[in-house]
Every structure is written in structure tokens, then in C-alpha cells.
Amino acid sequence: MNISFHEKELSINEKKITFPTSIQTVVQVKNGVIVLIKAFIKVSDRNVYFVNLDGAIKWRIQNLDPSKKISNQYYSYAGLNEDGVLEVNDINAYLCKVNLEDGALYDCEFTK
To answer: What distance, in Å, lies between the first and last C-alpha atoms of the chain?
Structure first.
């Protein structure tokens, strides 16, 4: 699998996907990649995506509180922990695990 990124563009096996802001981090996982884009207010909240190997976006990370119609979930970190589980940190100091099937958050804890 050939994965690269520059600015707002991700390339997976020659397929290109453009995001609303610059890509900060790309993490390879089974069946795709996790993309964390730089967060900017009113442009890129919920700024973590799962992209399939065919270049299709499978999901955008869900809100921490799904009852909110407008979210303010901006993430500053996305990566795999020592057990291979995807974790994200939001700007409010919550560390959450992410379900790779649908982008749902679980086991969230306040870290500061």
C-alpha cells in the first residue's frame, strides 16, 4: 500500500482525497488509514476520519455527546496505543478510545 500526504491532499494507491484543512497526522490501520486534519473553528471540528484503501471516507469521528446538534470536538492527537487501539485527545484534555468500525468514542477520561 502506497500512502502519502501533502497539505490538504491524501494519496492512497494513487487515489487522491482532499480535506478541508491541512493534514496533521496519518495512521495506518487494518483496511485503511486514520487522518487527523488541523482543526480550525467552524471549519473542521470532528477532525478525525477513517479512509478506506479505495479512497472512500468510511466515517468521520462521532461527537463525544451525540445529543448535541452542533459539536465543538477538536482533536489535537490521534494514534494507536500499545494495544493497537486508536486513541484521540481533544482540546479539552479528554483522551478517548475510538471504535474503528464507526468512529464512536468510548472509555473517555479527563487527563488534566
So the answer is: 38
Distance separating alpha carbons of residues 86 and 97, to the nearest angstrom? 6
Length of the chain: 112
Cell numbers standing for residue 79:
494514534
> In whole angstroms, how large is the CA radius of gyration of the chain?
13
Tens digit of each residue's pLDDT (9 = 90 or more) over 15-55: 999 999 999 999 999 999 999 999 876 666 789 999 999 99
Q: What is the pTM of this model?
A: 0.90
Which residues, 6 or more positions from 66, have their beta carbon under 8 angstroms from its beta carbon? none
CA-to-CA distance for 55 and 11, rounded, in angstroms? Answer: 8
Count of alpha carbons within 13 Å of 59, Cβ hemisphere only? Answer: 12
Beta strands 105-110 and 94-98, pairing class: antiparallel
16, 55 in Cβ contact below 8 A? yes
- The letter for the amino acid at 111 is T
